[in-house]
Amino acid sequence: MASSNRGFASMDQRMQRAIAAKGGRAAHASGNAHEFSPAEARIAGRKGGEAISRDRQHMAAIGREGGHARHARAQQQRQQSDQGPQGRDEPGQQD
């Protein structure tokens, strides 16, 4: 698949930062950039946590997904350690 030279991600880092800074200044100027105090952030986080925790099935699905990801990562690490540092099954094996 060929990569394109278009879009924000393909710009150099200085250009990305300049564009992002303009967006930040515009948001502050229009009053849309609200900065939370630590106390406000705690309250907002608590409210969100309480709201999502009410849905037990959803929470169970999130936990299950995390468990699957952790198991897959552990299994991959075991396979890599079994293959040794060169990525081969046996240390003396040649191509």
Question: Overview of this structure, please?
Answer:
The protein is mostly helical. The chain has a domain at 55-82. It is built from three helices and no strands. It has helices at 13-30, 38-53, 56-83. The longest helix is centred in the last third of the chain and has 28 residues, at 56-83. The protein is flat, with a radius of gyration of 24 Å. The model has no long low-confidence stretch (mean pLDDT 83). Residues 1-95 are annotated as: Disordered. It comes from Stenotrophomonas maltophilia. This is General stress protein. InterPro entries: Stress/Virulence-Domain. Residues 18-31, 74-86 have a biased composition (Low complexity).
Pick out its properties.
95 residues, mainly alpha
What is the number of strand segments?
0
Ranges where pLDDT stays below 50 over 5 or more residues in a row are none
User: What is the CA-CA span between the terminal residues?
Assistant: 29 Å
Number of helices: 3
How much is the radius of gyration in Å?
Answer: 24 Å
Helical proportion? 55-70%
Topology order in helix (H) and strand (E) letters: HHH
Organism: Stenotrophomonas maltophilia (Pseudomonas maltophilia)
Biased composition (Basic and acidic residues): 47-58
Biased composition (Low complexity): 18-31, 74-86
Protein name: General stress protein
Short description:
By secondary structure, the chain is mainly α. Helix content is 65%, strand content 0%.
Describe the secondary-structure layout.
Elements: H1 13-30, H2 38-53, H3 56-83
